[in-house]
Structures are given as C-alpha cells and as structure tokens.
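Hey team,

Filing this mostly as a record. A colleague (T.K.) asked me to run one chain through the structure pipeline before their review meeting, and I want the input and output archived in the tracker in case anyone asks later how it was produced. No errors, nothing strange. Just documentation.

Input sequence:
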Amino acid sequence: FVGMGIWATLQALALCWGMRIHPNFTKILVARSPSQFWYAWRGTMTRWLVEYVYIPLGGNRAHQMRNVFVVFAVSAAWHWMGVPFLQNRARPVDYLPVGAWAAANAVVLAAAGVWRRRGWKLWPADTPPALRAGVACLGTWVFGAITVVFLGFQGALAPRFPELLARLVGWR
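Output structure:
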C-alpha cells in the first residue's frame, strides 16, 4: 500500500505539471509477448526508453535489433547505478546479474522482433485461440520470472549468481 500511495502521489504531481505517467504493472498477468510484458511491468521506464532511445535510433524502421540492444544497455546502466548503494564495496560480480538480465532480455526481444517481422507462425491455423493465448501467457510468465529472479540477485546475493547460472545451464 505504501508503494501504491507513493505512485499515486507521483501521478498527481505529474498531472499538476500537465504530464500523464504511464502506469506500471497494468495487465501484467495477461501479457502475451515480451513487449507486452515490458509495457505492463515498468510502463513508465519502458515508455521513456522507447521515446528517447529506441525511436531516435530508428525504432522498427532501421537497425531494429541494434536498437533493442542499445535500449537494454541503457537500462542496464540505469540499474547498475544502484549497485554501489546495495554494497559497501561494489565488485565486478555485483554487476553480473543486471548485465545477464539485460543481455537475456535484449536477445529475447530482438528474436521476437525478427519472428514477428518475418511473419513466422508457431501454431497451425486450426489451433484454438484459447490454447494460443494460454501458451503465450505462460511463456510470458516464464520470461517475467527470469526477470524477477535475475534482478533479485542484488546486494549480498550477487556473488551467488554465477552458481545460479551454472545450475540453469546444467553445469552443476
């Protein structure tokens, strides 16, 4: 409730200045793609990154994959700025979870963009729409879970992140 109160206060202040803030965490459980997930998860930051980084670089019209990677590099830099506040002495391993998160998200969103641009289909035409929607939501939940887990390895947990990655890929 405290977070909701702070957010409501920020929205009210923005309205006083004639701006409207895109809400966060809206319809996150019904997102059906990585792009929809990001607009639902951190709508405010996502919208800023799209308007001030992605579109000026060319958006979907020119170098889409590069633009996605640049957006996540900027987002990683933003998140890395908080690392020194979580640790007394920031070590390189403390930056690894955010870097891995940014790289994973950039790869998934760039691949989704290529998939969509080429018009590839995952399902046969006669697949029931409810099944398509359910699997798309489930896949997006998995994608979102990776975001939450990777970004959760901050502060004192950061040195344990390489062990998590090793377990995820089956090395341990």
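Quick notes for T.K.: The two ends are 40 Å apart (CA to CA). The mean pLDDT is 86.
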